[in-house]
UniProtKB/TrEMBL annotation, chains A, B:
Pfam families: HCS_D2, HMGL-like, LeuA_dimer. Belongs to the alpha-IPM synthase/homocitrate synthase family. Keywords: Amino-acid biosynthesis, Branched-chain amino acid biosynthesis, Isoleucine biosynthesis, Transferase. This is Citramalate synthase. It catalyses: pyruvate + acetyl-CoA + H2O = (3R)-citramalate + CoA + H(+). Its EC number is 2.3.3.21. PROSITE patterns: AIPM_HOMOCIT_SYNTH_1, PYR_CT.
Length: 530, 530
């Protein structure tokens, strides 16, 4: 088959209409760059004019070159009794400066008559004039027929007349939207097939997941002839979410031989999914098809033994094809083979028959059980293994620290950290202020270490993440801190876990500094620096 | 149509093969009682003999009367070169003492030849003898044709011969399983239609969600003639999970007029879903169709204004029909309608035409742009609106606090907080230790407030979340803190934002205490407590 399907990502627009999903303008740019690299064709960035953050994104996007994707600004048709020339919303769409725009109009008489309370022909006029005006301004116009399926079921002639109006005004794509997510795949097939008889413009599909059918509806539409599909990474979106690109792309490309993204990109899907959930600071759904950490996790004993003989017995695609990995969940049945599988996967440089392997894996399991997460913190993992191999001494020895946060009636807090540490028996005692306790501690540590290792000035902390591990314990809960550090674009991540956020932060900070110094001093470090 | 569909729940068996899902025998009994009351026809309780917990459940279940449901024990056919009489697994199935049993056999030559490594005719014999033996022991026999669709695609004759063997031995239902979850709805339709030509026994469907198509596949099978369907509450199950009964039941019963459970039970669906996630101790998926807390949550301003006119505009069924409720989220995507709806719901006396509304909307948008998130923090939102209406005074006045975190070479940190506050001019000065800075501050604040408002002892903090807002700023980044508090199962959430995690935490803490006190003292509080 190999038909090409155009992918339209709306994570940054419809995705943010989902509860708990919020991105800053910079977050949006990071995600857009990632989507571009992945091979997405259209990236809908937001609704310029609806809020300052979205316009700020389009300003940032204008200063950035996208290799493949077109950035798209979203908005509605002009308002009733208004021309596009005088419509603020339409003008903002043009101001956004994107090569393509998507505008939505009404297809359902219920909305025309009850929500907008306007004349049915005026609605047709608004669609036509808005599309025409945007085409005159050299935009690629993607027309979103909102509630198309509900509208078609209620009054097929009227629904068709709205998209014909967009077509006659020059729309480049007509997107049939199941806005309320209540339509079933058999209805999608029937309606798309009927619509095809009436318009020549390429058709698209925009599905919501309110019946848990968004992926099936999108496949039904594509199988019926839609060549453009809209969705979001991880299915984020209003109410129950949008059609999930992380399921649709492999379904179409790996299993139905459509062409969605470049062949080699499909294996980056799991990483894309995790990146977006990370930026959104939402826990990834471990059960998510294809990309979730449980998607290829085998727990039942019979399954594990069959998979070890032939993975096809319980896996419909290979985990590698979507950049995921097979996991064998720990149970009474998993013995040495499980341990070898895991240490291979971690890339630990140990003899396969080494007696250290079981001890290391036990320690890892115990620490992961306590809340550490080494998958995301390979620098801490490397230090841990070095320590267990007794080939490690820290570059500095902490004697103590003290942090004071003081708030007076007059305003914000003042935070000061003092630290005492020794290197080769020489003591350094420093103090620093910071905007919070961890910032102050980082600055004091940096000052103290600098005397012995001036190269420390070249590395800095890039990201600091905190996750509360035990819910239901309020402020007494255990927390995990992840710190991303960087030198010249080379990042590494470290982890700390404690009931005390300061202790967890110290653990991750100290690992980060040590890891950096070890890599700086690889040749000269004699394993006895202290 | 109104055809009756038999529901077979496997939450307690296949559900527990999902990662992170585990139930005690008593948990299983509680869930089984709930499923029975809800109107489920078959409750698969586990695999007796595979572990002691499952057999214990069947013992508990025998002492309990189920009004409607039949409890089902699960197992495999007898082993190769073994008779059912001598097969331990089959004997345990009988010992479980359930009215019905489900047994699985192989349909796919790959499994027969590569996993079991047995003769293809021996597999047919095992199926036949096992079903016959269980029928002779007066069991209702549900035959699960494992990997039926994969097997049929590879070799239709062989796959058919396995279920014909079960049929000829007297199986009551033949369940076609998509065990690996890799089959598409069009394949399901085609294969079910072909199978119908060859067997007379009622057909069932068992789908997995590896392509995010389990619900669609189940509907396709039912629409093609299957009258028995298997699934789990919330879609728990091996890898990506099983077909989700919480979506399938309303899809079939509310939207396709099948009869699944008694009419009046559908509205207990949301409560069933939450009960099961509570017993499993898993966070509910807020985006879950029909039953999730976001399923009828409206965030976009246009959606809210339309829903207020006619809920059909953005809801495909009513929230009440599945026992859920409508929610309006307030965020930077909101317009005036969101604020009006929300203030109505919160019981804030805000005139519909009030001039205060635009100022409140502006303030909210500005604060959300700074990183506040009010959709999850309705208590802080309510305080903000009260403050903007100048109808608010805090219950206590902070004079200052100091937090000291001290770490010595010997081990973990020691954290102490001191706080000074006044109520009606009376000063209180308290100190407390905690396992971290926020815990210590919470304890000190609690001590200080207690003297004036002893009722504070009845509320406690339940969850504490931290999110770093500006990436790339490392430990100098802005953070948002969300605190969930609770009194007698009534929760509320507050928010704080600052570069200093202590200031952000203080803001959320102080809002939480004030919100609680306002609701405690609603009658007596004279708006000038201080």
């Amino acid at each position: 088959m190999n038909q090409t399907i155009h992918l339209f990502d709306t994570t940054l627009r419809d995705g943010t209409q989902g509860e708990k999903v919020a991105f800053s303008a910079k977050d949006k740019l990071r995600i857009a760059q990632r989507l571009d690299a992945f091979g997405i064709d259209y990236i809908e960035g937001g609704w310029p004019g609806s809020n300052p953050k979205d316009m700020q994104f389009f300003e940032l996007a204008r200063d950035h070159t996208f290799d493949h994707a077109k950035v798209v600004a979203f908005g509605s048709t002009c308002r009733a009794n208004n021309s596009p020339e005088e419509d603020h919303n339409i003008q903002m769409l043009i101001d956004a400066g994107t090569p393509a725009v998507s505008i939505f109009g009404k297809s359902w008489l219920l909305h025309v008559e009850e929500a907008l309370k306007i004349d049915t022909m005026e609605n047709i006029r608004m669609i036509h004039d808005s599309v025409r005006y945007l085409k005159e301004h050299d935009k690629e116009v993607i027309y979103d027929a909102e509630h198309f399926f509900d509208g078609y079921k209620a009054n097929p002639e009227y629904a068709l007349s709205t998209i014909k109006s967009a077509e006659s005004a020059g729309a480049d794509t007509l997107v049939l939207c199941d806005t309320n997510g209540g339509t079933f795949p058999n209805e999608i097939r029937k309606i798309v097939n009927e619509v095809k008889e009436h318009v020549d413009t390429p058709l698209g599909i925009h599905a919501h997941n309110d019946c848990e059918l968004a992926v099936a509806n999108t496949l039904a539409a594509v199988n019926s002839g839609c060549v453009h599909l809209q969705g979001t990474v991880n299915g984020y979106g209003e109410r129950c979410g949008n059609a999930n690109l992380c399921s649709i792309i492999p379904n179409l490309q790996l299993k139905q031989q459509y062409q969605c993204v470049p062949e080699e990109k499909v294996s980056e899907l799991s990483s894309l999914s995790r990146f977006v959930s990370e930026v959104a600071n939402l826990n990834p759904n471990h059960r998510q098809p294809y990309v979730g950490q449980s998607a290829f996790a085998h727990k039942g004993g019979i399954h594990v033994s069959a998979v070890m003989k032939n993975a096809d017995t319980y896996e419909h695609v290979t985990p590698e094809s979507v950049g995921n990995r097979r996991r064998v969940l720990v149970s009474d049945l998993s013995g040495k083979s499980n341990i070898r599988y895991k240490s291979d996967q971690l890339g630990i440089d140990l003899d396969k028959e080494s007696e250290e392997i079981p001890a290391i894996v036990d320690k890892l399991k115990q620490m992961e059980n306590e809340g550490y997460q080494f998958e995301a913190a390979e620098a801490s993992l490397e230090l841990l293994v070095q320590k267990m191999k007794k080939q490690w001494e820290d570059y500095f020895k902490l004697e103590g620290f003290r942090i004071i946060v003081e708030k007076n009636i007059s305003g914000d807090s003042r935070t000061e950290a003092t630290i005492r540490l020794t290197v080769n028996g020489q003591m350094e005692h420093c103090a620093a202020e910071g905007s919070g306790p961890v910032h102050a501690l980082d600055k004091a540590l940096r000052k103290a270490v600098h005397r012995f290792y001036p190269g420390i000035a070249d590395m800095h902390l890039q990201d600091y993440k905190v996750r509360v591990l035990d819910h239901k314990d309020g402020t007494d809960a255990k927390v995990r801190v992840l710190i991303d550090s960087v030198k010249n674009d080379e990042p590494w991540t470290t982890v700390g876990v404690s009931r005390n956020i300061i202790d967890a932060s110290w653990e991750a900070l100290s690992d980060s500094f040590n890891y950096y110094l070890a890599n700086q001093h690889e040749q000269t470090h004699n394993k006895k620096a202290i």
